[in-house]
Request: fold
Amino acid sequence: MATKPVNRNNDLAAIHIAQKALGLSADDASALKLAITGQASSSKMTTAQRRQYLAHLSGLQARAARDRGEKPAYEPVRPMGQRSAADDQDDRWAKARALWHALAQAGHVHTDTDAALLAYVRRQAKVDAWRFLNTHQVNSVIEALKRWCRRAGVEVAHG
Reply:
């Protein structure tokens, strides 16, 4: 049992170091933790949540290193699911945009822009950026948009 606190303390130290290396403010770090694990505090995370968050931070660090033209110190085994409004390769963002556009074309949305969609996402998921949404939150936003389309009588392709 003596190894459990040591592992926990090592995880907490690694989280702190990674957040500092990424230049995350306390508020940004809390929002990211909440989005990734459902906990805003590292100390309240389970071991699995701490590992999940550390894996996400490792992916962010690797991406930042590549963006600077450097070789990442660590490459995650599985590529991180980056979600960004600027990422046209994200099928789920494309789906949300398509639903938003369909609502705009039918006159149910007044502003057909990514910024307006992101404002909707903020209200629905309580997260500041699409890339911080976890899978459950992404699905919730898309399903909310689909329900809105059904209520408004807007035809959308299934998929």
Residues 106 and 153 are 9 Å apart (CA to CA). Confidence is low (pLDDT under 50) at residues 78-86. The radius of gyration is 18 Å. Helices lie at 3-22, 26-37, 47-67, 91-105, 114-125, 135-152.
